[in-house]
Amino acid sequence: MNKPWQFAHRHNILSAMRRNRKAKIIATLGPASSSPEALEALFRAGADVFRFNFSHGTHAEHKARVEMVRDLERAYRRPIAILMDLQGPKLRVGEFAGKTVRLEHGAMFRLDLLSALGDATRVMLPHPEIFAALTADTDLLLDDGKVRLRVERVGPDFADTRVIIGGTLSDHKGVNVPDVILGISSLTAKDRVDLDAGLDMGADWVALSFVQRPEDVAEARKLIGGRAALLSKLEKPSAIDFLDEIIELSDAVMVARGDLGVEVPPENVPILQKRIVHAGRRAGKPVVVATQMLDSMVHAPTPTRAEASDVATAIYDGADAVMLSAESAVGAYAVEAVTIMDRIISTVERDEVYLRITNASRLEPESNAADAISAAARQVAHTIKAAAIVTYTSSGSTTLRAARERPEVPILCLTANLAVARQLAIAWGAHCVLINEIGNFADMVKKACRVARRDSFADFGDRLVVSAGVPFGTPGTTNVLRIVRLDEN
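The chain above was modelled as a monomer; its predicted structure follows.
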């Protein structure tokens, strides 16, 4: 039996081939977006990457969604990235005898390893690694920061704390330790099982949670073994201390503002967002801004004005992608959320202020041939008013260098590597097309002209700026720049 999207008219398919914006949209899948019809609606509304949250759902459910995404990809002939997001270690208190307790300001409260049900004086915290890392005067945040405790005395199996900010605490609420590097891995036993399953399903990106230090990224990269690209989620203040090292070891990073917003003062989150985006731009690595971007749209058909401004700010900052979480996973208005996010991005990118900010924030190219060619491609495209920059890449590096330059024109990426085409779905400005292997530069130019016309990037008489690495198939080389005009012949 034919799938519903197989009945789409050709002009409808082609209309979804091309995005009229450069920043990308990541949509999280969940109960509200798990049918083929829902997936197609999200894609047509503007989703470029689908996030699979491995904190929820079974492997069988994730596998079924992966197959739907791949069916959709084949139907629309456009590479779509699958981002698997690992849960990471979740630090939580145990259970209370009455399910909830009230902690009063100034009271003493003990955290320990005892399995007995808790009360207003103590509760189990089944994480000895926390006690090993704590010192006097360390603050602990419980239930997303609603309750704050300060350590007064600590031992190998307990911590006596004073309640600084009181409130109601219930079973299994989360614990954050903002200013301490904990002696635990970013990958739990569950994460390792999930990672193997997700890679077997064909995930293109792995999002690593709870990154504290560069060693966490190195451990994950070793386990992934080149089967997917690695995105590090920056949600711990300690990760910011190693920002450049973590970015260097990662293929992309995410400003995960949920836990980050708990562990640092709220007024610091916008500053850190700008710092992370700038650091990613400097390194030529994609940066995703995430968490509560259109949160009210879980229940409402339109966002608040503040939320619209938040999405716009991420685009003005230079983010490669913005992400929807609950809005598309469990929200009642998933398609509307993607649609309005698409409209916000498109509107910002047409704004003269955005163009001025982008030009002013452009970074100096590094002193190597590949960066020089990429910078020249942007400048030439601007000068001759080219229709697009075309990159031919085997590893993705030529396209990422072009994206780092933030050209005014679209980036049409040609590659014979399907994995690379999918991974670049997260990169700013990149429209990736899978092609057969190319034997020489002249064949590549002809193919570029045909694809540019087919996908409505250019028409007869328009000019393209083409960059590639020669010899073909050598990763990391960008050493050729050429201007071509589309000829009816």
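The longest helix spans residues 59-76.
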